[in-house]
Amino acid sequence: MNNKGATHSIRFKLAIPTAEYEALYRGEARDVQVRAIDNRIVRFPGSAITKFLTHEGIYGTFTIYFDDAGKLISIERVVAG
Fold it and tell me: For 1-81, where are the alpha helices, taking DSSP H only?
């Protein structure tokens, strides 16, 4: 994953079953909001996690990287499901 330009990172866990993710796919929801491991609230576009979608959904521990302006640089899975 390319984290070049990232100055900050936050780790979080996701457990999104396929049925719930379908709301993002259909456009009923646009963003994902999670509570980070350090208790901060993180919001990012659902499209940023599409590559992690399996038949069961999206599960695991992830790290989001962003710059000083809060712009998303990348998300990577640290631990699967």
Answer: 18-25
Which residue is it, tokens 């936050």? 10
* Predicted confidence (pLDDT) at residue 12 exceeds the cutoff of 90: yes
What does the alpha-carbon distance between residue 69 and residue 50 come to, in Å, rounded to a whole number?
23
Distance CA 36, CA 13 (A): 7
Domain boundaries, the chain: 8-80
Quickly name the fold that domain 8-80 has: OB fold (Dihydrolipoamide Acetyltransferase, E2P) (2.40.50)
SS3 content of the chain, % helix, strand, coil (to 5): 20, 50, 30
What is the model's pLDDT at position 1? Answer: 54
Band the pLDDT of 28: cuts 50, 70, 90.
confident
